[in-house]
C-alpha cells in the first residue's frame, strides 16, 4: 500500500519509522511519502492560511497550496490505483474498525491534515469531483490538527495489511472485530498479589474457555458499550 500525507508538521510522522509499521515500511509492505504543504507555496513566508471569507475567528487553509500538493501526489501515484483522499475532520463520518478494514484493501491513500479552522471547502469539492474523497472524524471532540487523527488511522489500517502483524489470528479475536469488546486477557503467573487467573483458563477445556470468553465479551460490552450490543444478544441475554 502507498500512503501519502500532506501536513505542515512533517516531523509528526517520524514515529512511523519504529515498531510494526516501521518494519512494514522496511519490508516494502507500506510505502510512505510525507509532504510539507509549505513546499507548495510561492511567497517569502510560505503562507498556507488566510482570514475566513465572511469574517469570524481564526484562519482557514488556502486552497492553492493544497491543489498543488495533491495534484503532484496524484500524478506521481501508482498507476491504476484509484486513490482515496482522506481529510480528517471533526465534521466527518466516524472512523471505526469497519472503515479500517475497508481502507486496508486500498492501494493508495492520501491523507490531508488540516490545521487552524480547517481547509477551504473548495479543496474537498475539487477532488470529490475528480475521485474519491472522505472527511473522517476520529471522535466527537476537536483536536488542534489532523496529524494525530491520521496517525491513529494509519496505525489501525496498517496493522490489518496482510504481513504487518506476525500472527494474523491475533487480529481476529480483537475488540470490534465481531461487534463485541474483547474478553479480559491474563498471562503467567497463575497468582499475582493474591489475584488468580480464572481457573477455567487453566483447565485446558477449550470449549469451556471459548464459552467463558464469549460471556465475558457480552458482559463487558453490555456494561461499557451497550450501544454496540447486537440486538439478538440484547433479546436473548438481556
Ligand atoms: N473548525 C473546525 C470545526 O469546527 O469542524 C475544527 C478545526 S480543528 C481546530 C483543525 C483540524 O484538526 C481539522 O481541520 C482536522 O484536520 C483536525 N481535527 C480536529 N478534530 C478532529 C477529529 N475529531 N477528527 C479528525 N480530525 C480532527
Q: Can you walk through the features of this model?
A:
The protein folds into 2 domains: 2-166, 3-Layer(aba) Sandwich (Alpha/beta knot), CATH 3.40.1280; 173-235, Orthogonal Bundle (Trp Operon Repressor, Chain A). Helix 3 links the parallel strand 5 and strand 6. The chain is elongated and about 70 Å long. The two termini are 43 Å apart. The relative contact order is 0.14. The protein has 8 helices and 9 strands. The chain has helices at residues 19-26, 63-76, 97-104, 121-130, 147-158, 169-172, 206-224, 231-237; strands at residues 2-7, 31-36, 49-50, 60-61, 84-94, 108-112, 132-137, 191-192, 195-196. It is of the alpha/beta class and 238 residues long. The longest helix has 19 residues, at 206-224. The strands form 3 sheets. It has a 5-stranded parallel β-sheet with strand order 2-1-6-5-7. The mean pLDDT is 95. The site of S-adenosylmethionine (SAM) has 19 residues, from strand 5. S-adenosylmethionine binds at residues 88-91, 113-115, 117-118, 137-139, 141-146, 149.
Amino acid at each position: 500500500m502507498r500512503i501519502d500525507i500532506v501536513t505542515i508538521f512533517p516531523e509528526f510522522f517520524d514515529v512511523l519509522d519504529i515498531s510494526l509499521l516501521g518494519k512494514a515500511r522496511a519490508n516494502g509492505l507500506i510505502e510512505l511519502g510525507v509532504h510539507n504543504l509549505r513546499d507548495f507555496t510561492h511567497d517569502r513566508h510560505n503562507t498556507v492560511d488566510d482570514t475566513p471569507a465572511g469574517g469570524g475567528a481564526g484562519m482557514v487553509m488556502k486552497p492553492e497550496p493544497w491543489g498543488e500538493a495533491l495534484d503532484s501526489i496524484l500524478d506521481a501515484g501508482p498507476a491504476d490505483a484509484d486513490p482515496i483522499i482522506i481529510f480528517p475532520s471533526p465534521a466527518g463520518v466516524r472512523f471505526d474498525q469497519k472503515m479500517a478494514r475497508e481502507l486496508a484493501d486500498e492501494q493508495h491513500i492520501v491523507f490531508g491534515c488540516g490545521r487552524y479552522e480547517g481547509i477551504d471547502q473548495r479543496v474537498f469539492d475539487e477532488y470529490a469531483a475528480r475521485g474519491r474523497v472522505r472527511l473522517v472524524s476520529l471522535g466527537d471532540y476537536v483536536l488542534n490538527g489532523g496529524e494525530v487523527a491520521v496517525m491513529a488511522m494509519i496505525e489501525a489500517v496498517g496493522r490489518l495489511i496482510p504481513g504487518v502483524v506476525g500472527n494474523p489470528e491475533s487480529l481476529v479475536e480483537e475488540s470490534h472485530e465481531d461487534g463485541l469488546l474483547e474478553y479480559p486477557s491474563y498471562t503467567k503467573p497463575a497468582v499475582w498479589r493474591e489475584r488468580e487467573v480464572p481457573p477455567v483458563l487453566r483447565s485446558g477445556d477449550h470449549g469451556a474457555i471459548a464459552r467463558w470468553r464469549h460471556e465475558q465479551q457480552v458482559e463487558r460490552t453490555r456494561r461499557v458499550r451497550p450501544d454496540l450490543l447486537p440486538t439478538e444478544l440484547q433479546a436473548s441475554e438481556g
